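From: lab user (bench 3)
To: helpdesk
Subject: output format question, protein + TXE

Hello, I'm new to running complex predictions and I'm not sure whether the block I got back is the full result or only part of it. Here's what I submitted:
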Amino acid sequence: MTTIHNYINGTLVPPAAGNYLDNYNPAIGAVYSLIPDSDHIDVQNAVVAASAAFAEWSSMPLDKRSAVLMKIADLIDRDLSALALAESIDQGKPVKLATVVDIPRASANIRFFATGIQHFSSEAHITGNEAVNYTTRSPIGVAGCISPWNLPLYLFTWKIAPALAAGCTVVAKPSELTPMTAYLFSKLCIEAGLPKGVLNIVHGLGPKVGQAIVEHPQIPAISFTGGTVTGKRIAATAAPMFKKLSLELGGKNPNIVFADCDWEKMLSTSIQSSFSNQGEICLCGSRIFVERSVYDRFVTEFVAKTTLLTVGDPLDDKTKIGPLNSEPHMNKVLSYIELAKQEGGTIMCGGKRVTVEGRCANGYFVEPTVITGLSPDCRTNQEEIFGPVVTITPFDTEEEVLAFANSTHYGLSATLWTENLTRTHRMAAALKSGIVWVNCWLFRDLRTPFGGMKQSGVGREGGWEALKFFTEAKNICIKL
Ligand code: TXE
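Helpdesk reply: Thanks, we reran it on our side. This is the complete output you should expect:
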């Protein structure tokens, strides 16, 4: 059984108190590794190391800093298969998905920011003939990065890469539910020659390690991705300390289908946007709204395609739906399916836990589930379920579907299916979400600002926004 270590000051170390937590493989429902149950002492050690490393890392010539990060990205590519396997075992996602999407996107994140920093510039303003203003952007210091369990290495690197590229040193905490790829990543950092203390990874529970990072007075910026409830707690701690905050939270995203769309493309993409990664992606379109004239056809064809999705061993290439990430999470998803029934919904397919034969007999599998007949304002349609569960609701007009789509506290993403250009612009402008995908889903350009409106978050990640987040601007005004 692997024992995971913290990565502090350039070395792999056990937690100070010597305590460990069980780490489960969700496909088999059994413990397969141990993770440090770290506490504020480990966080303090990490902050001391990160503070000591800051002066050298932040002043390192950009091409040199960039080269170390590029080396780490190369090592991720070299170890693609091993990392994909580890992520599949740790998280439950089909290994194929980890191989094709998660791990390649992790190295792409690092390359993007490692090269981006070399093009990052600040501004100068000539104020009439009276003054010159120029702005400097300096790395903010030790950054705190806290990431979730659904896309472990991908979201971990999405947070730490801009911080490191900008010249910050980092204290990071991966989710205690999926620590393995961050642990393997720390070994790659050592191999790549990342100077000691530049990145420190402290494993453990959110309320212990996460909270200690958020509370630490020497960490001026916190970048967090996770649940909205946790985000609120982090904001409540960090805001009175005047920390910079980037909160990437939950979603309850609408997927809006007009009759004039490219049907086949819409149908196959909607299956992906509903059930990829077992629906455990904050950008999944869990509320599908369909124009009434094509509603019956959509339900029939969508349900038929859903029932063809293979639920099974994530290490099998045929598997489309692996286990949910943990037993409590599976129970939460199942409880929402029960709630949907109580709220008057009809389960068109799925709805139950699945027993997969063989080694996965005790895994946390749930059938992909399609529910109709619910009102847009019921709890099932308002709260984030974060599993393979979607609802389908008919609509009559643009105004009506906009009201449905915008009716939740969330505002992360929306997908729109139509070939009508003017409607596209009208709807895209009126949808209250940080990103609107038109005739596609999950298409990514790392230069674009990424984040949510309303309770889906605060701040924007991606591109210059992320690099700016990890720097502090100063304006210098020289009177001529
Ligand atoms: O996430 P948490 P959970 C949603 C999804 C899910 C729900 C809860 O609906 O069911 O959130 O999931 C750390 N201070 N999303 O409970 O707790 C924690 O250790 C500092 C959406 O697993 O938010 C982990 O590293 N940190 C989401 C990280 O926060 C704390 C992805 C996220 O865990 C902390 C995941 C604290 N007090 C869940 N408490 C998305 N937007 O992609 C916990 N953490």
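A quick orientation on your result: The chain has a mean pLDDT of 98. Let us know if anything else is unclear.
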